[in-house]
Amino acid sequence: MKQGTGTKKTSPKKKTGLHAHGIRGILSSAASPFPYLVPAFAPVSFPAPEYLFFSPGLLQLDLNIFREPAIKALIKEQSEDLYRLIKKVHFDGKYYRVKCVHSGGWEHCWDLAVRIQFFGKLQGLAFEPKKIVSRKDKKIIYRSLILVNPHELWDEELVERLWNLQERIEFLIAKILFHECIHVLIFLGETLPSGFGQTDIFLEFRKMLEFANSEKLCPESCNVQSRLRNLADLSPDFPESSEEKLDKVPVLYEFLIHEKYSIKKTDQAFGLSWSNRKVSRNYAKMAALKMGSYPESRKKDWEKEIFRLHRDLKELYDRIDDNQGSERVRD
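-> C-alpha coordinates emitted (331 positions)
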Protein backbone atom coordinates (compact mmCIF):
# COMPACT_ATOMS: atom_id res chain seq x y z
CA MET A 1 0.00 0.00 0.00
CA LYS A 2 1.13 3.51 -0.69
CA GLN A 3 2.31 5.24 2.45
CA GLY A 4 2.09 8.83 3.57
CA THR A 5 4.62 11.57 3.85
CA GLY A 6 7.36 9.64 5.63
CA THR A 7 8.47 7.52 8.54
CA LYS A 8 10.93 9.79 10.32
CA LYS A 9 10.80 9.45 14.11
CA THR A 10 9.31 12.34 16.04
CA SER A 11 11.50 13.75 18.78
CA PRO A 12 10.35 13.52 22.41
CA LYS A 13 10.03 17.28 22.48
CA LYS A 14 7.62 17.25 19.55
CA LYS A 15 5.68 14.33 20.96
CA THR A 16 4.92 16.16 24.18
CA GLY A 17 4.89 19.70 22.88
CA LEU A 18 1.18 20.27 22.31
CA HIS A 19 0.06 23.08 24.61
CA ALA A 20 -3.23 23.27 26.45
CA HIS A 21 -4.61 26.10 24.32
CA GLY A 22 -3.88 24.03 21.21
CA ILE A 23 -5.72 21.07 22.68
CA ARG A 24 -8.75 23.27 23.33
CA GLY A 25 -8.90 24.09 19.63
CA ILE A 26 -8.53 20.45 18.67
CA LEU A 27 -11.19 19.34 21.12
CA SER A 28 -13.71 21.86 19.85
CA SER A 29 -13.24 20.69 16.28
CA ALA A 30 -13.29 17.01 17.22
CA ALA A 31 -16.43 17.31 19.30
CA SER A 32 -18.61 18.84 16.65
CA PRO A 33 -20.40 17.22 13.80
CA PHE A 34 -19.43 13.56 13.87
CA PRO A 35 -20.93 11.65 16.79
CA TYR A 36 -18.84 8.49 16.66
CA LEU A 37 -15.33 9.86 16.68
CA VAL A 38 -15.01 11.14 20.21
CA PRO A 39 -12.77 10.47 23.19
CA ALA A 40 -12.77 6.80 23.99
CA PHE A 41 -12.41 6.93 27.76
CA ALA A 42 -13.26 10.48 28.84
CA PRO A 43 -13.63 9.98 32.62
CA VAL A 44 -16.24 12.66 33.26
CA SER A 45 -17.32 15.48 30.98
CA PHE A 46 -16.14 16.43 27.52
CA PRO A 47 -14.69 18.82 26.75
CA ALA A 48 -13.73 19.88 30.27
CA PRO A 49 -10.81 22.26 30.94
CA GLU A 50 -9.48 20.18 33.83
CA TYR A 51 -8.66 17.37 31.39
CA LEU A 52 -6.39 19.64 29.39
CA PHE A 53 -3.77 20.28 32.06
CA PHE A 54 -0.42 18.55 31.94
CA SER A 55 1.14 16.51 34.70
CA PRO A 56 4.77 17.70 35.07
CA GLY A 57 5.87 14.19 36.01
CA LEU A 58 4.44 12.73 32.82
CA LEU A 59 6.14 15.33 30.65
CA GLN A 60 9.51 14.17 31.98
CA LEU A 61 8.87 10.59 30.80
CA ASP A 62 10.47 9.70 27.47
CA LEU A 63 7.70 8.19 25.36
CA ASN A 64 10.30 6.78 22.97
CA ILE A 65 10.67 3.76 25.25
CA PHE A 66 7.68 2.10 23.59
CA ARG A 67 8.30 -0.43 20.82
CA GLU A 68 5.93 0.01 17.89
CA PRO A 69 6.12 -3.68 16.79
CA ALA A 70 5.22 -4.81 20.33
CA ILE A 71 2.10 -2.61 20.33
CA LYS A 72 1.02 -3.88 16.93
CA ALA A 73 1.60 -7.47 18.05
CA LEU A 74 -0.71 -6.95 21.05
CA ILE A 75 -3.43 -5.65 18.74
CA LYS A 76 -2.89 -8.44 16.22
CA GLU A 77 -3.45 -11.04 18.96
CA GLN A 78 -6.94 -9.66 19.47
CA SER A 79 -8.08 -8.55 16.00
CA GLU A 80 -6.70 -9.14 12.53
CA ASP A 81 -9.02 -6.44 11.18
CA LEU A 82 -7.60 -3.76 13.47
CA TYR A 83 -4.06 -4.96 12.90
CA ARG A 84 -4.47 -4.63 9.13
CA LEU A 85 -5.70 -1.08 9.69
CA ILE A 86 -2.49 0.00 11.47
CA LYS A 87 0.01 -2.49 10.00
CA LYS A 88 1.82 0.09 7.84
CA VAL A 89 1.11 3.12 10.02
CA HIS A 90 4.00 4.51 12.06
CA PHE A 91 3.10 6.31 15.27
CA ASP A 92 4.71 9.60 14.25
CA GLY A 93 1.62 11.68 13.49
CA LYS A 94 2.08 11.40 9.71
CA TYR A 95 -0.54 10.04 7.32
CA TYR A 96 -0.21 6.61 5.73
CA ARG A 97 -2.41 5.06 3.08
CA VAL A 98 -4.23 2.09 4.66
CA LYS A 99 -6.87 1.20 2.08
CA CYS A 100 -7.90 1.93 -1.52
CA VAL A 101 -10.87 0.53 -3.45
CA HIS A 102 -12.36 1.27 -6.87
CA SER A 103 -16.09 1.62 -7.36
CA GLY A 104 -18.25 3.35 -9.95
CA GLY A 105 -15.26 4.81 -11.75
CA TRP A 106 -13.96 6.45 -8.57
CA GLU A 107 -11.03 5.54 -6.34
CA HIS A 108 -11.79 5.66 -2.61
CA CYS A 109 -8.74 5.88 -0.32
CA TRP A 110 -8.25 6.04 3.44
CA ASP A 111 -5.27 7.66 5.17
CA LEU A 112 -4.57 7.22 8.87
CA ALA A 113 -2.21 9.00 11.26
CA VAL A 114 -1.43 7.92 14.83
CA ARG A 115 0.36 10.10 17.35
CA ILE A 116 1.38 9.15 20.91
CA GLN A 117 1.64 12.05 23.34
CA PHE A 118 0.62 13.31 26.77
CA PHE A 119 -2.08 15.97 26.59
CA GLY A 120 -4.12 15.87 29.79
CA LYS A 121 -6.56 13.31 31.17
CA LEU A 122 -8.33 12.11 28.04
CA GLN A 123 -7.04 8.67 27.07
CA GLY A 124 -7.66 8.92 23.37
CA LEU A 125 -9.14 10.96 20.56
CA ALA A 126 -10.16 9.86 17.08
CA PHE A 127 -10.89 12.90 14.99
CA GLU A 128 -13.59 13.35 12.41
CA PRO A 129 -12.15 12.20 9.07
CA LYS A 130 -11.39 14.93 6.59
CA LYS A 131 -12.84 14.26 3.16
CA ILE A 132 -10.81 15.36 0.14
CA VAL A 133 -12.45 15.09 -3.30
CA SER A 134 -10.58 15.39 -6.60
CA ARG A 135 -13.03 15.37 -9.50
CA LYS A 136 -10.16 15.66 -11.94
CA ASP A 137 -8.55 12.43 -10.71
CA LYS A 138 -11.90 10.88 -9.71
CA LYS A 139 -10.51 10.17 -6.26
CA ILE A 140 -11.97 10.56 -2.75
CA ILE A 141 -9.54 10.50 0.18
CA TYR A 142 -10.55 10.24 3.84
CA ARG A 143 -7.94 11.28 6.41
CA SER A 144 -8.28 10.19 10.03
CA LEU A 145 -6.09 11.18 12.98
CA ILE A 146 -5.84 9.26 16.25
CA LEU A 147 -4.20 10.69 19.37
CA VAL A 148 -3.23 8.27 22.13
CA ASN A 149 -2.52 9.57 25.63
CA PRO A 150 -1.09 6.88 27.98
CA HIS A 151 -1.38 9.08 31.06
CA GLU A 152 -2.81 6.32 33.30
CA LEU A 153 0.52 4.52 33.54
CA TRP A 154 0.30 4.39 37.32
CA ASP A 155 -3.24 3.07 37.55
CA GLU A 156 -3.14 0.60 40.46
CA GLU A 157 -4.70 -2.31 38.58
CA LEU A 158 -2.37 -1.80 35.62
CA VAL A 159 0.76 -1.52 37.79
CA GLU A 160 -0.12 -4.75 39.61
CA ARG A 161 -0.55 -6.46 36.27
CA LEU A 162 2.60 -5.09 34.60
CA TRP A 163 5.50 -3.98 36.78
CA ASN A 164 7.83 -3.31 33.86
CA LEU A 165 7.33 0.30 32.71
CA GLN A 166 8.08 -0.40 29.05
CA GLU A 167 5.62 -3.31 28.89
CA ARG A 168 3.03 -1.28 30.79
CA ILE A 169 3.18 1.70 28.43
CA GLU A 170 3.00 -0.61 25.41
CA PHE A 171 -0.02 -2.41 26.83
CA LEU A 172 -1.80 0.87 27.62
CA ILE A 173 -1.07 2.36 24.19
CA ALA A 174 -2.30 -0.84 22.53
CA LYS A 175 -5.52 -0.79 24.54
CA ILE A 176 -6.31 2.86 23.78
CA LEU A 177 -5.34 2.50 20.12
CA PHE A 178 -7.48 -0.64 19.84
CA HIS A 179 -10.52 1.29 21.04
CA GLU A 180 -9.91 4.29 18.81
CA CYS A 181 -9.33 2.09 15.77
CA ILE A 182 -12.75 0.52 16.30
CA HIS A 183 -14.27 3.98 15.79
CA VAL A 184 -12.29 4.42 12.58
CA LEU A 185 -13.03 0.93 11.28
CA ILE A 186 -16.78 1.32 11.78
CA PHE A 187 -16.77 4.68 10.05
CA LEU A 188 -14.79 3.11 7.22
CA GLY A 189 -17.46 0.40 6.91
CA GLU A 190 -20.22 3.01 6.76
CA THR A 191 -18.37 5.24 4.29
CA LEU A 192 -16.73 3.03 1.67
CA PRO A 193 -18.85 1.61 -1.16
CA SER A 194 -20.99 -1.36 -0.14
CA GLY A 195 -19.02 -4.53 0.48
CA PHE A 196 -15.57 -2.93 0.73
CA GLY A 197 -15.45 -2.03 4.42
CA GLN A 198 -17.55 -4.76 6.00
CA THR A 199 -15.14 -6.25 8.52
CA ASP A 200 -16.18 -8.58 11.34
CA ILE A 201 -16.07 -5.62 13.73
CA PHE A 202 -18.34 -3.55 11.50
CA LEU A 203 -20.82 -6.41 11.13
CA GLU A 204 -20.80 -7.10 14.90
CA PHE A 205 -21.53 -3.46 15.61
CA ARG A 206 -24.37 -3.36 13.07
CA LYS A 207 -25.88 -6.43 14.72
CA MET A 208 -25.78 -4.77 18.15
CA LEU A 209 -27.25 -1.58 16.70
CA GLU A 210 -30.03 -3.51 14.99
CA PHE A 211 -30.99 -5.11 18.31
CA ALA A 212 -30.75 -1.74 20.08
CA ASN A 213 -33.24 -0.30 17.59
CA SER A 214 -35.62 -3.26 17.71
CA GLU A 215 -38.96 -3.41 19.51
CA LYS A 216 -37.50 -6.15 21.72
CA LEU A 217 -35.47 -3.54 23.56
CA CYS A 218 -38.36 -1.27 24.42
CA PRO A 219 -39.00 0.10 27.06
CA GLU A 220 -35.24 0.43 27.71
CA SER A 221 -34.41 1.99 24.34
CA CYS A 222 -37.55 4.13 24.40
CA ASN A 223 -36.64 5.47 27.85
CA VAL A 224 -33.13 6.45 26.75
CA GLN A 225 -34.40 8.25 23.65
CA SER A 226 -37.03 10.00 25.75
CA ARG A 227 -34.29 11.30 28.07
CA LEU A 228 -32.33 12.56 25.07
CA ARG A 229 -35.41 14.42 23.82
CA ASN A 230 -35.85 15.98 27.27
CA LEU A 231 -32.24 17.18 27.18
CA ALA A 232 -32.85 18.68 23.74
CA ASP A 233 -35.89 20.50 25.13
CA LEU A 234 -33.70 22.04 27.83
CA SER A 235 -31.20 23.38 25.32
CA PRO A 236 -31.71 26.87 23.87
CA ASP A 237 -29.64 25.80 20.85
CA PHE A 238 -32.77 24.41 19.18
CA PRO A 239 -35.95 26.32 18.23
CA GLU A 240 -39.14 24.85 19.65
CA SER A 241 -40.14 23.11 16.40
CA SER A 242 -36.61 22.42 15.18
CA GLU A 243 -36.16 19.38 12.94
CA GLU A 244 -32.49 19.44 13.90
CA LYS A 245 -33.50 18.63 17.47
CA LEU A 246 -35.52 15.62 16.30
CA ASP A 247 -32.67 14.46 14.06
CA LYS A 248 -30.08 14.66 16.82
CA VAL A 249 -31.82 12.19 19.15
CA PRO A 250 -31.28 9.07 16.96
CA VAL A 251 -27.75 10.24 16.15
CA LEU A 252 -26.83 10.48 19.84
CA TYR A 253 -28.63 7.22 20.59
CA GLU A 254 -26.47 5.50 17.98
CA PHE A 255 -23.41 7.18 19.50
CA LEU A 256 -24.26 5.62 22.88
CA ILE A 257 -24.60 2.17 21.29
CA HIS A 258 -21.37 2.71 19.39
CA GLU A 259 -19.52 3.44 22.64
CA LYS A 260 -21.07 0.43 24.33
CA TYR A 261 -19.79 -1.82 21.56
CA SER A 262 -16.31 -0.25 21.43
CA ILE A 263 -15.73 -0.34 25.19
CA LYS A 264 -17.05 -3.89 25.54
CA LYS A 265 -14.87 -5.09 22.65
CA THR A 266 -11.81 -3.44 24.17
CA ASP A 267 -12.54 -4.84 27.63
CA GLN A 268 -12.86 -8.36 26.22
CA ALA A 269 -9.54 -7.98 24.43
CA PHE A 270 -7.45 -6.46 27.23
CA GLY A 271 -9.18 -7.52 30.42
CA LEU A 272 -9.44 -4.18 32.24
CA SER A 273 -13.19 -3.87 32.35
CA TRP A 274 -15.59 -0.97 32.83
CA SER A 275 -18.93 -1.71 34.46
CA ASN A 276 -22.14 -0.66 32.74
CA ARG A 277 -22.75 1.68 35.67
CA LYS A 278 -19.48 3.50 35.03
CA VAL A 279 -19.88 3.60 31.25
CA SER A 280 -23.47 4.85 31.45
CA ARG A 281 -22.54 7.54 33.98
CA ASN A 282 -19.69 8.90 31.87
CA TYR A 283 -21.45 8.75 28.53
CA ALA A 284 -24.78 10.07 29.78
CA LYS A 285 -23.03 13.32 30.61
CA MET A 286 -21.07 13.27 27.37
CA ALA A 287 -24.28 12.81 25.38
CA ALA A 288 -25.85 15.71 27.26
CA LEU A 289 -22.90 17.94 26.41
CA LYS A 290 -23.07 16.91 22.78
CA MET A 291 -26.80 17.68 22.72
CA GLY A 292 -26.11 21.34 23.39
CA SER A 293 -25.78 24.04 26.01
CA TYR A 294 -28.29 24.76 28.75
CA PRO A 295 -29.28 27.99 30.54
CA GLU A 296 -27.85 28.43 34.04
CA SER A 297 -31.39 28.86 35.35
CA ARG A 298 -32.15 25.26 34.33
CA LYS A 299 -28.95 23.65 35.54
CA LYS A 300 -30.73 21.56 38.21
CA ASP A 301 -33.23 20.26 35.63
CA TRP A 302 -30.32 19.42 33.31
CA GLU A 303 -28.47 17.51 36.04
CA LYS A 304 -31.62 15.60 37.01
CA GLU A 305 -32.17 14.59 33.40
CA ILE A 306 -28.56 13.39 33.11
CA PHE A 307 -29.06 11.27 36.23
CA ARG A 308 -32.21 9.75 34.71
CA LEU A 309 -30.39 9.13 31.43
CA HIS A 310 -27.56 7.45 33.35
CA ARG A 311 -30.04 5.15 35.10
CA ASP A 312 -31.95 4.25 31.92
CA LEU A 313 -28.76 3.85 29.91
CA LYS A 314 -27.41 1.33 32.42
CA GLU A 315 -30.61 -0.71 32.07
CA LEU A 316 -30.26 -0.54 28.29
CA TYR A 317 -26.64 -1.72 28.42
CA ASP A 318 -27.59 -4.53 30.82
CA ARG A 319 -30.27 -5.73 28.39
CA ILE A 320 -27.79 -5.69 25.51
CA ASP A 321 -25.37 -7.81 27.57
CA ASP A 322 -28.15 -10.22 28.51
CA ASN A 323 -29.08 -10.63 24.86
CA GLN A 324 -25.49 -11.33 23.82
CA GLY A 325 -25.14 -13.83 26.65
CA SER A 326 -28.26 -15.71 25.57
CA GLU A 327 -27.03 -15.76 21.96
CA ARG A 328 -23.75 -17.37 23.05
CA VAL A 329 -25.69 -20.02 24.96
CA ARG A 330 -27.78 -20.80 21.86
CA ASP A 331 -24.64 -21.03 19.74
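The longest strand covers residues 106-116.
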